[in-house]
Design a protein that fits this description.
alpha/beta; 410 residues; single chain
């Protein structure tokens, strides 16, 4: 081989090496770009002071994701909303982003200062640490972007709107905007804003006004707007839907039991309370249901015996119950009793639950009851079906798998 051949081969090798080098650089660049694309919102972790310094230097607002480790919607936002490319760009460009666990370090103090009572709480602070805007609960990408846009606009910040309302502003468009902001923030005051809006309307029963009254009236008998909804329930059901109206009234009735300190062991007192929400005809059934649900897990043998006696009467007189209620009572019987007659009743309840909606939970309850009754073959079938459905639902089947081992050992 001559010198020229060696030079040619060396030259080719250099070219190959350069090409390989460029390909490698390109791959690293691609990986880097991809990492940036999936990075999501860039958070400072649990350091409010650092966030305030950065906010001061960059002339930005601080966005705080106030979360807890047990909060399911918080984790869902981490996996979805915070990873969205458009969301991440907007929040990284416009805010200093801070993530704080409300149960660790300075989290409890922060939560107390800013009245954080639900999760996720999504707060916006100025560089001094003063609250300017907030929202509550899971937000999808579209809603979270809208929230950020409102927080970055001083005229739309909830604290600005609150100051305008307290200064006496009564423009109807403003009032609805303010009521909406307060509702999203989980703050009080939306009932008063809605009252100021509706008082300017001659006809409260238009489609728009019924929706406004439903969305922005406080769910409590203390609210005049809520009382109007109860008095005109048929109109609201026709416009909003029967189930939604029913759910709001039920929520108010249950919440007011606690706020008004109604004795939950006194069925007569509960009946009087529920009559304000559902009328005399339905009050006793509602009161009994609440009484039983409260008694279901009240500690003490006396309460357990009272529950076992009263639940049988309740179930006999209320043949139409939701699959959730049927499952809950059947499971409690399984936990509390070895009486075969009572377990047989619980089996009939859980079968009704499964007829309404079959899922891994009520199938597990059925398998457990059948196990106690000694029906090995039927119990194993229900348990195996429960495990299969748990996989489809994404729920944890480990307790049912343990039950299967017990059933097989019978």
């Amino acid at each position: 081989m001559g010198i020229s051949d060696i030079i040619v081969n060396f030259s080719i090798s250099k070219k190959k090496l350069m090409k390989l080098f460029l390909i490698t650089i390109g791959l690293f660049a691609s990986v880097s770009i991809f990492a940036q694309e999936v990075e999501g919102i860039r958070f400072i972790l649990a350091d409010l002071t650092k966030a305030q310094v950065q906010a001061t230097n960059a002339d930005k607002i601080i966005f705080v994701d106030a979360y807890t480790t047990w909060c399911g919607p918080c984790k869902m936002m981490d996996r979805t909303t915070f990873k969205d490319e458009e969301v991440a760009k907007f929040y990284n460009d416009n805010f200093v982003n801070l993530k704080m666990d409300m149960e660790k370090g300075k989290g409890p103090t922060f939560a107390q200062k800013h009245s954080v009572r639900g999760y996720p709480s999504l707060l916006f602070l100025n560089a001094r640490g003063d609250l300017v805007h907030r929202s509550l609960g899971f937000q999808d990408e579209k809603r979270f972007l809208k929230l950020g846009q409102s927080a970055s606009d001083p005229s739309q910040q909830v604290i600005t709107l609150q100051n305008r309302f307290e200064s006496g502003e009564k423009d109807q468009k403003f009032l609805l905007n303010y009521a909406d902001a307060l509702t999203m923030a989980g703050m009080s005051g939306y009932d008063e804003a809605t009252q100021a809006y509706i008082e300017q309307e001659k006809n409260w029963n238009t489609s728009k006004n019924i929706k406004v009254l439903f969305d922005y009236s406080k769910a409590s008998i203390d609210s005049k707007l809520f009382q109007y909804m109860i008095a005109n329930k048929d109109l609201f059901e026709a416009e909003i839907g029967m189930q939604k109206v029913e759910d709001k009234i039920s929520f108010a009735a249950s919440s007011d039991v606690r706020s008004k300190q109604v004795d939950t062991t006194d069925k007569e007192a509960l009946t009087t309370h529920f009559a304000k929400y559902f009328g005399v005809d339905h009050a006793n059934e509602r009161a009994t249901r609440y009484y039983l649900n409260n008694l279901m897990y009240s500690p003490g043998e006396i309460n357990e015996q009272k529950y076992l006696a009263d639940v049988q009467l309740f179930m006999a007189s209320n043949p139409v119950l939701s699959f959730k209620s049927l499952n809950a009572h059947a499971w409690r019987i399984y936990e509390l009793s070895d009486d075969r007659l009572l377990l047989a009743q619980a089996e009939s309840w859980i079968n009704k639950s499964i007829e309404q909606e079959k899922n891994s939970f009520n199938l597990d309850t059925k398998a457990s009851i059948l196990y106690k009754l000694g029906k090995k073959k039927e119990a194993l079938k229900a348990a195996e079906e429960s495990v299969k459905l748990a996989g489809e639902e994404g729920s944890d089947p480990s307790a049912t798998e343990e039950l299967i081992s017990k059933i097989k050992a019978m």
